[in-house]
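Protein data sheet
==================
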Amino acid sequence: MKHARLDALPSPKVIIIGGSNAAFGIDSERLEKALCMPVVNMSIHASLGFRFMVEEVKGSIGRGDLVIVALEHSCYSKSTKDNDLHILTADRYLGALHYMPWYQRPKVVVGIAVMRMQGRWKELSGAWKDDSLDPVYRANGFNAQGDVISHLDRPPREASRQQAVDFFEPYIGEEFDPLVRALAVEVNTHGGELVFTWPSIAKSSFRSTFHQAMRDGLRESGFEIIGRTEDYVYPDTLFYDTHYHLNAKGRQVRTTQLIRDLCASAQVHCCVGPGSVP
């Protein structure tokens, strides 16, 4: 669904890339009203890695597109990732193989075959008869723009049981800079704009040293993160089940702040001023 929209939308358009913090925590319909451009939120999960995200969208960037990057901390630390999420993603959309390094593809293809055989066996043996569809983490849990909305009307997990954020060193991996520069070249070639924004994070997981490293790393690559760090650090009660996944209220708070920061940026043209957020 995300790729169908990405390929179908005319330019100029807005493309959001990032992990699940952006999938759960941005209201793209409000962004469309503020920016007067259609939005496609390509964000899924940080475990896909920044390299995957860049490869996924760079061939679809058109004239005047605005690319918004909202990365979790692990994507700065390790840009190329190799895990079972790639198998699950390619099983849903086989074209995803092209966004992975060539050396990962054979493993992913074998993984898909094994997973499908296991699924067929469970189906035939009745092992799945009592299974139920997860109410949130499901393929049809997204809206037309690509935002996760399946959690919005559900009660959040109590704050003490929410998954905290893990931080890794090095804070900025050696792969990050060339990937950022390659993405910037693609955007600039098409006369677009590339904007980086802070990920939403729960207050109890916030680490100022890591956020400063994110800012410093981007500056070394020639980029700034719009907005202030503290404006994207929210009470734990505004999160759904992890310290990256905002609940319905938190999603609106973060979207309001994002629109204000975008509209205050010289890189972005908005339909409204920073003080008139839709």
